[in-house]
Design a protein that fits this description.
The protein is of the alpha/beta class and 314 residues long. It has a seven-stranded mixed β-sheet with strand order 10-9-8-11-12-13-14, sandwiched between helices. The longest helix has 17 residues. It is globular, with a radius of gyration of 20 Å.
Length: 314
């Protein structure tokens, strides 16, 4: 069976990543014109034939989140009206993932709303990575390929010799991240510890205590995302007080603003190892590992009707 022709389309959220994905696949990005009218409305025009094609639209919903989501919806609509055979939304970072439940009276479940909008616009498949809440996959009635940053980050850590001397402890900065921390600890042959925290506000966290042994050991804090770095830096401070030797952080998505970069620069953390899932994953003491090869291989396999299961392996 002849597989459909692949077309890669990039929004404006992270064109650099889209170009690296195309380079890894051995193709080029489709000719698409994305601009804004003077009143801020987004205009999209696809300047080549995509009729019947397998279209992959690369657009993380990072800040400015609302703008990037709306731009993605408009690109999806343009592709649908141009008779694309299948529309795949490649969202390495899925915004609004923390609003996945009603934890207060009269609040929305915005992650579900975004899922509904993408499906209604005409998306046939979602490719994403390290959702803040993995159950968000169930918010979609279309296939979701949920990839993991762990193979890329673990590969980098192993190259740097992390855990080689048996003196490494992987630390979860909160109880909710224990499952992710356990996976990293198993892969690196490390011990596991947890920092119990108390969140004061959206930007301020008070870390309370450490469960596990970190005295005289190198530690790796792992989390799925950070914006203001409040959780990471508070955890690093208490780990330092408990005798940790060297402190690193491994984060899937570093959606860093100025406050987050300043906190990391002045913290006890030596290096934050993250991915380039968003363009703001940069700053002093921040190292971004490229995920273009991972996403490119996923796109290649999806286009060819092959399994992506092996991409989850370290």
């Amino acid at each position: 069976m002849l597989r459909p022709r692949m077309k890669l389309i990039s929004g404006t959220a992270h064109r650099g990543l889209a170009e690296r994905i195309a380079e890894n696949i051995g193709t080029s990005l489709a000719d698409v014109h994305v601009t804004a009218f003077p009143d801020g409305e987004t205009f999209v025009k696809i300047n080549e034939n995509i009729r019947g094609d397998d279209v992959f639209i690369i657009q993380p919903s990072c800040p400015p989140t609302n703008h990037n989501i709306m731009e993605l919806l408009i690109m999806v609509d343009a592709a649908r009206r141009a008779s694309a055979g299948r529309i795949n939304a490649v969202m390495p970072f899925f915004g609004y993932a923390r609003q996945d439940r009603k934890d207060q009276p009269r609040v929305p479940i915005t992650a579900k709303l975004v899922a509904n909008m993408l499906t209604e616009a005409g998306v046939d498949r979602i490719i994403t990575m390290d959702l803040h809440a993995p159950q968000i996959q169930g918010f979609f009635d279309i296939p979701v390929d949920h990839l993991y940053a762990k193979p890329a980050l673990i590969g980098y850590l192993r190259d740097k010799g992390a855990g080689a001397d048996g003196n490494l402890t992987v630390v979860s900065p909160d109880v909710g991240g224990v499952k992710m921390a356990r996976a990293y600890a198993d892969a690196l042959g490390a011990d596991l510890a947890i920092v119990a925290k108390h969140r004061v506000s959206a930007t301020k966290v008070e870390a309370m205590n450490v469960i596990g042994e970190v005295d005289g050991r190198d530690v790796l804090l792992v989390d799925d995302m950070t914006e203001t770095a409040g959780t990471l830096c508070a955890a690093a401070e208490i780990l330092q007080r408990h005798g940790a030797r060297r402190i690193y952080a491994g984060v899937s998505h570093a959606v860093l603003g100025e406050l987050g970069r300043e906190r990391i620069a002045s913290s006890a953390i030596e290096t934050v190892i993250t991915t380039d899932s968003v363009p703001m994953a940069c700053g002093d003491k921040v190292h971004a590992v490229g995920i273009a090869p991972l996403l490119a291989e996923a796109i290649r396999r999806i286009n060819g009707g092959q399994s992506v299961t092996s991409l989850f392996e370290v």
